[in-house]
Structures are given as C-alpha cells and as structure tokens.
Amino acid sequence: MNFNTGGSLLLLPSLAMLVSFLCLFLFLVPTLLAQSSNTNASSTRAAARALDARLQDYAYRAFVQPKTGVLYNGVVPSNLTGVQIAAMRLRSGSLRTRGVAMYKEFQIPIGVVEQPYVERLVLVYQNLGNWSLQYYPLQKYTYLAPVLGLLAYDGSDLSAKNLPELDLRAFRGPIKIRFLNVESVPEGSVRKCIWFDLHGLVEFSNLTAPNECSTIHQGHLSIVTESISPPTPPPEREGRGSNSKRIWIIIGSVVGGVALLALLGILVIWARKCKQRKKMQEMEKAADSGEALHMTTVGDTKAPSATVTRTKPTLEDEYVP
Ligand SMILES: *[C@@H]1O[C@H](CO)[C@@H](O)[C@H](O)[C@H]1NC(C)=O
Ligand SMILES: *[C@@H]1O[C@H](CO)[C@@H](O)[C@H](O)[C@H]1NC(C)=O
Ligand SMILES: *[C@@H]1O[C@H](CO)[C@@H](O)[C@H](O)[C@H]1NC(C)=O
Ligand SMILES: *[C@@H]1O[C@H](CO)[C@@H](O)[C@H](O)[C@H]1NC(C)=O
C-alpha cells in the first residue's frame, strides 16, 4: 500500500518530463529547421542582390553611343562566365505606349509603367545560365531552364553604378517569357513557373503556354519541376515535400518519445528496486528485533519476515505423519 502510492508519485514527474520532451520534439525542431533555412535565405538574397548590382554595371558598359530601343549584349567578368547580359535603353513613354515586341525571351506589351517615373530607362536582361542554382537555390524543385531576369533602371547616367531598381508594372497585360531549351520532364511531372521578386518573395504559377511564363512585375523567372526523391515515388503532388517533412518530424517525435518512455520505465523500475531493497533491509532489521509479524504485505514481493511466519505451520504439518 504504502509502496504503491510512492510508485505513482514517482511516475507523475516522469510523465511531466515526457510531455515536455515531446513538446520539445514537436515544436522546437521545426522552428530550428525554419530558422536555419531563413538565415540561409537572407544570405543568398544578399548575394543575388549584389549580383544584380554587378550585372547592372557590366550591362551599362555595353552602351557606346546607344540608340534607343536597340539591344546591346554585354560582357560579364571572367569569374561569372556562363552568365549572359544585355541592355536596352528606352524612353519611358515609348515603353508605355509601344512595349518591346521581342527582347531576348521577353515580350513586353504596351501599358508597362515604371515607378518612380524617369524620362529614359534601361532594361537590363540577365540569363544566369549555370549560375542559377547558386544565386537562386531551390529546396524541393529542380530548374528546367536557366533563371532569367529583367530589371529596370534609370537611364539618365550610363556610367552610374549601384543604381536602385525601378518598379516595373504591366497594367494592360502580362509580360511574357518564352523560355528556350527547356529540359523535358518525366511522365506525370508537373512544370511550374517560378518568380522571385527583389525582396526574397517566391511565387509559383502555371505555365501560360508551352515553355512560357508570364508576370506583371519585374524580377527573376524560370521553369521548375518538383524534385523526385529517390526512395519514394511521387504519387501526390501539391505540398508533398512539406507533408513528408512533417511526417518525418512526427516519426522522430514518436521514436524519441518511445525511447524516453523506455528510459523512464527503467528509471522507475530502478527506483522501485531501491525502495524494495531499503524496505527489505528495514524488515530484516525488524525481524531481528522480533517485530516481523507487523510488516507482512509489501506489494507483490516476498519479505523475508513474512515467509518465515507463513511457512512455519506447514513445517509442523510435515512432521505430524
Ligand atoms: C546553407 O547553410 C549551409 C550550412 O548551414 C551551407 O553549407 C550552405 O552552403 C548554405 N547554402 C547556401 C545556398 O548558402
Ligand atoms: C569576381 O571577382 C570580383 C573581383 O574582381 C569579386 O568582387 C567578386 O566577388 C567575384 N565574383 C564571384 C562570383 O566570384
Ligand atoms: C559555369 O560554366 C562556366 C564555363 O562555361 C564555368 O567557368 C563556371 O565556373 C560555371 N559556373 C558554375 C557555378 O559552375
Ligand atoms: C494550374 O493548373 C492545374 C491543372 O493543370 C489546375 O488544377 C490549377 O488550378 C491551376 N492553378 C492556377 C493557379 O491556375
């Protein structure tokens, strides 16, 4: 009796501990994961912004007595080999009322307006080629085409560096991007357009035509498909990655919880044994001083004093015949 209440009292703090550990697994682990990916994201965004600034500089160098509305291919520094750049200078009014029918992969409709207003602007084209993944890393997706960028800058000073981007917006219809050499995807895979704004926002959308994406803002775009992880075939699509991550976290928590439970079980058993041993010692002491009969039941364990007193009568019976 006395011992049993002791046992359950011992279990209460253990349960509390178990619950708190489970909470730790369920909430701390995902937030830690999110935090680590956030710090990574901000550093890669900074690198991408620094790249934009360098490419603006190098694209402007392509202008030598530039004509309006003419495309000039730029040359990138040798440590960015694989990136292609171009620049086109336009009057703001011409952009708004006529658009640009073909600027590399971009098709700019009428009704595109920059903010703040400038009289002349420069559209800088970027094709990041094999540098795409480095500056715009993907988590659960794979690029099927290089990342392309179209950014607008003030075109009044063609030797300017570190210019802020102008905010471009298409009011009459979207800017269309027809990607060249898009990689083919396995049967059943879905292709999506991905769009990165200049502040780290990422959006996915459906293709608007074969190999074509559209946007009403400036930024960087590409075509992606969801990565297929080798062990599991991808039967479901929308949000599969985040689901499997959640499942792994749950499995981790359960396994952790079970391991903890086992540990606590061992602890409880050990504590019981200790208590028992103590009780037994006490009883032995009591038996020695002739008070054994007062302490008979000790849970389901055999106390030496009890066995002695119970078996005494049977011993006498054996001697009778
Ligand atoms: C993200 O962080 C890990 C280390 O935490 C690092 O190895 C990796 O290069 C980072 N990724 C990017 C794209 O910076
Ligand atoms: C390329 O070299 C320049 C110095 O010439 C350096 O500032 C820049 O970080 C380098 N870029 C890369 C991507 O290595
Ligand atoms: C891209 O390819 C060029 C060669 O075409 C190479 O010099 C460069 O290092 C590559 N960049 C990356 C990030 O692999
Ligand atoms: C994208 O296309 C799929 C079908 O291919 C459709 O179910 C989904 O609603 C579309 N999404 C948007 C945002 O249009």
UniProtKB/TrEMBL annotation:
Entry keyword annotation includes Nucleotide-binding: no
PANTHER family reported for this sequence: EXPRESSED PROTEIN, PROTEIN, PUTATIVE (DUF1191)-RELATED
Keywords for the protein's UniProt record, in alphabetical order: Membrane, Signal, Transmembrane, Transmembrane helix
Signal peptide stretch: 1-34
Annotated protein name in UniProt: Transmembrane protein
Superkingdom as given in the UniProt entry: Eukaryota
UniProt cross-references to InterPro entries, sorted A to Z: DUF1191
Pfam family, one: DUF1191
Segments traversing the membrane: 247-271
Region (Disordered): 299-321
